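User: Design a sequence. Structure:
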């Protein structure tokens, strides 16, 4: 965080700085994703003209992706630069290495970012608010206390999405969603068990220093209302996704822990449907009513 870093950042255009901010928060983006987020009315070739000087100055680096697509990530120098000028309450410096950018976690990171981009596109069309920084990766909350020689249990959501919807001329509605990105790599019972963990988070009250539990659950310190869960299935066929959703719902409904903790509102959607039709299309399956399709707000028809 040197003065030289801040001075260097001032040389670049505002959109270039915004791209650095996105790479800081989202770790890994393709050129197409950067184009959709920051220069949607320009060509991909035009976007590359912004990326080239950032790369030449050592602020960003690239790795080879599928189909010879470049995957862009922030360097340490780029992180120093953005931290010097970007005033934010929370700094989460988790940069990708060349090995990680080309490794097995890249598909997961890129898919989570595709989820966020689908909501950004919808917000632009509807004049709502959801921008390039409206989701954060890997949000962790405790769901059990630490004990001697045993750390407390954590629930880690793949992302937290924030979407502000216009409701009339003067009112707004704040929507928050925990995002679970499912690529079919874990057994369905593990995915189903995570729904119970979200229900435990909803009721978890850590003990105070005086030994008693507080009157309000821990989540109320972070959220106005408890976020619903959105499960996005990626890298699976349509038929395979449907089977996995059905099995996951059946496993959750027979989970003994569900009798103790209940369920949290949860919707399923494939990444292909989300990106093709957007979140306001009725392409989501409700955990509680799997026989009907709804939009991301639980409405059977597009909501406005």
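Assistant: Done.
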């Amino acid at each position: 965080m040197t003065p030289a870093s801040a001075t260097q950042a001032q040389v670049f255009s505002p959109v270039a700085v915004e791209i650095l901010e996105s790479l800081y928060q989202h770790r890994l983006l393709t050129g197409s994703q950067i184009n959709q987020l920051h220069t949607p009315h320009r060509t991909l070739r035009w976007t590359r003209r912004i990326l080239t000087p950032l790369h030449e100055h050592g602020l960003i680096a690239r790795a080879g992706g599928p189909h010879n697509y470049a995957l862009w990530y922030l360097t340490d120098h780029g992180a120093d630069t953005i931290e010097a000028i970007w005033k934010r309450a929370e700094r989460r410096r988790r940069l990708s290495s060349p090995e990680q950018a080309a490794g097995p976690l890249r598909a997961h990171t890129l898919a989570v970012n595709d989820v966020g981009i689908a909501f950004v596109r919808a917000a632009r069309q509807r004049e709502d608010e959801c921008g390039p920084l409206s989701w954060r990766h890997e949000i962790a909350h405790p769901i059990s206390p630490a004990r001697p020689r045993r750390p407390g249990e954590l629930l880690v959501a793949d992302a937290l999405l924030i979407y502000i919807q216009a409701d009339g001329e003067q009112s707004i509605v704040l929507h928050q969603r925990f995002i679970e990105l499912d690529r079919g790599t874990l057994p369905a019972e593990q995915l189903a068990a995570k729904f119970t963990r979200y229900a435990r988070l909803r009721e978890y009250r850590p003990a105070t220093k005086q030994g008693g539990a507080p009157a309000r659950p821990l989540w109320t310190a972070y959220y106005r209302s408890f976020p619903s869960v959105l499960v996005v299935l990626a890298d699976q066929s349509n038929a395979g996704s449907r089977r996995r959703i059905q099995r996951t719902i059946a496993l959750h409904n027979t989970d003994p822990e569900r009798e103790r903790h209940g369920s949290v509102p949860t919707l399923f959607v494939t990444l292909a449907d989300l990106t093709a039709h957007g979140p306001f299309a009725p392409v989501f399956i409700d955990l509680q009513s799997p026989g009907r399709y709804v939009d991301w707000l639980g409405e059977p028809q597009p909501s406005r």
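Residues 3-7 have pLDDT under 50 and may be disordered. The beta strands are 29-30, 60-64, 70-74, 135-142, 154-167, 171-182, 228-233, 266-270, 284-286, 293-294.
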